[in-house]
Specification:
The protein is of the alpha/beta class and about 325 residues long. It has one domain: Aldolase class I (TIM Barrel). The chain is built from 10 helices and 12 strands. Strands 7-8-9-6-5-4-3-2-1-10-11-12 form a 12-stranded mixed sheet. α3 links the parallel β3 and β4. The longest helix is centred in the first third of the chain and has 15 residues. Bound molecules: S-adenosylmethionine and iron/sulfur cluster (2 copies). One iron/sulfur cluster (SF4) binds next to α10.
């Protein structure tokens, strides 16, 4: 519980800040500094923190992210260990899909409950321009493998950009044809190069106008009260499209998320640099009570959220270094 009465239930753990793409809204062109392996939480440390979070702190959902979590070879082992210890807790994965074609089956066998694959466009040239890598066919192969492995419903996350706005309908059609649940996310000022611009970011309203030219959209509300995505039924259904209006209609008052960075620092809010180091407690021989006290302390101070877009400043870490 934080000082404003919000309860964190959804724990997002970054497993690495390394990535094989360089999406310009997230990473610098040269990538983030490669952390030496010993700086990262080990699989056992991740599982121990999940144990504490679930048993003592009321966490009831875990999402593994990064950087690119598929870069971790022990990803399947981490998922299996969490699911074995806490079969009632869903474990989700957010990935760019590279390497998923090879691993989807094992991820499903390890007990992965849900998967979100990030894909901003199905136009190969535009994909390469946004991610600075020509890897669209590999991502599509990964999505297909996830569907085949039974990881349904596969959700697709697309960041809304001026660059892909006129192709938003094409992406939605592509997803509907494959039974994939598409959600657009407003870009947040969490890029590494500070290029996010409050005057030109694409809002939910811009997206609805663009999609509305090609589809009949009927608002159907959120999945549940705390869910960040608002949803619209497309052309009478059954397909829907979601929009996460993180900037223009922020949902900080209902925020139920908390994050652990790849080096083991709890970060209660994306936009506040206030963090606490759990790794040194783990490695210094601290017991559960020490971990819980530190975790509660930083959670109590959780920021109310981000300021209105017109006075917002960039936090120190970029999205890839926090864990989205
Ligand atoms: N590499 C994985 C991926 O791309 O799915 C996981 C990490 S990535 C940081 C998690 C999510 O954050 C992705 O869906 C990505 O599109 C989103 N993201 C990254 N930078 C963002 C930004 N500046 N604003 C909004 N979403 C962002
Ligand atoms: Fe990598 Fe994901 Fe960031 Fe793109 S959004 S650079 S895939 S971490
Ligand atoms: Fe939660 Fe902070 Fe994001 Fe608002 S800005 S939704 S408080 S993490």
């Amino acid at each position: 519980m934080d000082g404003l009465g919000r309860r964190a239930r959804d724990l997002r753990i970054s497993l690495t800040q390394a990535c094989n793409l360089r999406c310009h809204y997230c990473m610098p062109a040269e990538g983030l500094a490669i952390l030496p392996r010993e700086e990262l939480l080990s699989a056992d440390e991740v599982v121990r923190l999940v144990d504490v979070a679930v048993d003592q702190l009321g966490i009831d959902e875990v999402r593994l992210t990064g950087g690119e979590p598929l870069i971790r070879r022990d990803l399947e082992a981490i998922i299996a260990a969490i699911r074995t210890a806490h079969p009632e807790v869903p474990v989700a994965l957010t990935t760019n899909g590279l390497g998923l074609a090879r691993r989807a089956k094992e991820l499903a066998a390890a007990g992965l409950s849900r998967i979100n694959v990030s894909l901003d466009t199905v136009d190969r040239e535009l994909f390469a321009a946004i991610t600075r890598r020509d890897r669209l066919p590999d991502v599509i192969a990964g999505i297909d493998a996830a569907v085949t492995a039974g990881l349904a419903p596969v959700k697709i996350n697309a960041v809304a950009l001026q660059q892909n706005l006129d192709r938003a309908s094409e992406l939605l059609r592509w997803c509907l044809d494959r039974g994939l649940a598409l959600r657009f996310i407003e870009a947040m000022p969490l890029d590494a190069e500070g290029t996010w611009d409050r005057n030109s970011y694409v809002t939910a309203a811009d997206l609805l106008a663009a999609l509305g030219e090609d589809f009949a959209l009927t608002a159907v509300g959120r999945e549940d009260a705390g869910a960040p995505a608002e949803r619209w039924r497309v052309d009478g259904g059954p397909g829907t499209v979601g929009i996460i209006a993180s900037m223009s209609r922020s949902f900080c008052g209902a925020c139920d998320r908390t994050r652990i960075t790849a080096e083991g620092r709890v970060r209660p809010c994306l936009f506040s640099d206030d963090e606490i180091d759990l790794r040194s407690i783990l490695r210094g021989g601290g017991d559960d009570a020490d971990l819980i006290a530190a975790w509660r302390e930083v959670t109590w101070r959780k920021s109310p959220g981000h300021l209105p877009a017109d006075i917002l400043t960039h936090p120190r870490r970029s999205m890839g270094a926090i864990g989205g």
